[in-house]
Design a protein that fits this description.
Number of strands of chain A: 11
Number of strands of chain B: 11
Oligomer: heterodimer
Number of helices of chain B: 0
Largest interface: A-B, 23 and 21 residues
Shape of chain A: globular
Helix content of chain B: under 10%
Shape of chain B: globular
Radius of gyration of chain B: 13 Å
Order of helices and strands of chain A: EEEEEEEEEEE
Largest sheet of chain B: 7 strands, mixed
Strand content of chain A: over 45%
Distance between the termini of chain B: 39 Å
Strand content of chain B: over 45%
Chain lengths: 107, 118
């Protein structure tokens, strides 16, 4: 299976700041990388696929980059609604596998 | 609007079977791919398997022969059965939908916590 290493596990920031989350795959996954947002009481939300393509409805302050094994999720000008847990996931091959999550907390 | 809702027992005894239902509204399960994903305490996520629009299935090899995913198209529901559970199967279980065989999970249920304990 492809191992996904996500960092950091926790991130504290304030509204208006920018943050980045890293995701590394144990082997090349081309650009077959998605990012999800998890919030209590809500269904998980697909934010980005194909490494950098925003899913319909994802605010433009979110961006994704990378290909091969190294990927980054960046959130610019944080808003209160962005404080959540974020996961990366590879879908280059079965079984799909996830990173361990990054909890973005309010500083 | 597509909605997925998991249901089932919140507590299962070790060695027994875990059975969950995903009820789908707003979309027919005879289209797309429908599956199960779980999140363990500590946030590790694991894809468990799917049942396709045609009824074919695919499972995570890590679950070997313990897992079965079936469906009832007349009720627009699909089901998860996980046999011989242990405490390590304690997790929040999510059902999800994705449009093609590419496992990109566009729609999720809210999840249901299942605890395995005697």
């Amino acid at each position: 299976d492809v191992q996904m290493t996500q960092s950091p596990s926790y991130l504290a920031a304030s509204p208006g700041e920018s943050v980045s989350i890293s995701c590394k795959a144990s082997k090349s996954i081309s650009n077959n990388l998605a990012w999800y947002q998890e919030k209590p009481g809500k269904a998980n939300k697909l934010l980005i696929h194909s490494g950098s393509t925003l899913q319909s409805g994802t605010p433009s302050r979110f961006s994704g980059s990378g290909s091969g094994t190294d990927f980054t999720l960046t959130i610019r000008s944080l808003e209160f609604e962005d404080f959540a847990v974020y996961y990366c996931q590879q879908y280059n091959e079965y079984p799909p596998t996830f990173g361990a999550g990054t909890k973005l907390e309010l500083k | 609007e597509v909605q997925l809702q998991e249901s089932g027992p919140g507590l299962v005894k070790p060695s027994q079977s875990l059975s969950l239902t995903c009820s789908v509204t707003g979309y027919s399960i005879t289209s797309n791919y429908w599956g199960w994903i779980r999140k363990f305490p500590g946030n590790k996520m694991e894809w468990m398997g799917y049942i396709s629009y045609s009824g074919s299935t695919s499972y995570n090899p890590s679950l070997k022969s313990r897992i079965s995913i079936t469906r009832d198209t007349s009720k627009n529901q699909f089901f998860l059965q996980l046999n011989s559970v242990t405490t390590e199967d304690t997790a929040t279980y999510y059902c999800a939908r994705w449009p093609t065989r590419v496992p990109l999970f566009a729609y999720w249920g809210q999840g249901t916590l299942v605890t395995v304990s005697s």
